[in-house]
Design a protein that fits this description.
Distance between the termini: 35 Å
Oligomer: single chain
Shape: globular
Radius of gyration: 14 Å
Number of strands: 7
Helix content: under 10%
Order of helices and strands: EEEEEEE
Structural class: mainly beta
Number of helices: 0
């Protein structure tokens, strides 16, 4: 994504406020070059989306029991 300044934001989907910001990391593997993000240390449950530059993801949930009743 262009114009990302090497940062990504995790945004609360209800309030549309940034709750976490992290660095985008360049990764080189046998199958190509990628950029990765890691927000695994963010634990607050809720509905969020990721923003990189002017690109956003669809909303998703962070929930410790996210897989309950999924089968």
């Amino acid at each position: 994504v262009k114009n990302n300044n090497g940062k990504f934001q995790l945004v609360d989907n209800i309030r549309h406020s940034m709750v976490y910001e992290g660095n985008i990391k360049a990764e080189k593997t046998a199958i190509g070059n990628f950029e990765t993000i890691d927000f695994s240390d963010f634990k607050k449950e809720g509905q969020y989306y990721i923003r990189v530059g002017n690109v956003t993801t669809k909303p998703f949930y962070i929930n410790r029991n996210i897989w309950d009743n999924s089968a």
